[in-house]
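Its record is quoted verbatim for completeness.
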Amino acid sequence: MIEQIYNYFTIEMLYLWVNIGVLPFWMLIIFFPQSRLCNLLVASIFPIFLLSAAYIFVLYQSYLNSYDFLGNFNLYLGITNLADLFKDDLYLLLFWIHFVSINLFVGGWILKDSQKFVINKFLLTLPLIITYLIGPIGLFVYWIIRIFYAKSLSLYE
């Protein structure tokens, strides 16, 4: 049975599961931010635990394929070296899981932070959707909205 599960989770299948798997969390964040289910699932460590398990599985697959982990440090030498790393499907999947995890974490943080300042959930929809698609810009849009609700600009929160 474990062999069947192992054979099922190819790189392509894991990529699809990661993409589909985060959608329910984002739907809860965007459409039901005040719900208890959202607080239990999204604002907890649960989604990060699932994505970490996928990340560890890909790392294990990389190890089995004799991936050159030390070669990853070449990414700091130039943009061409970074592009060479992305030619490997396993590395690309590791990057994608990393990206999806961080964006989901930031979306959860935006949700919790917006509840402290009682920001209108309809106003919050735009920065959350942008965070899902292009994380840093969504966070920036949220900070612009947050300044008006907090009535102050703090660089240390």
User: Anything to note?
Assistant: Residues 2-150 form one domain. The longest helix spans residues 121-150. The helical segments are 2-8, 11-31, 36-41, 46-64, 79-85, 89-116, 121-150.
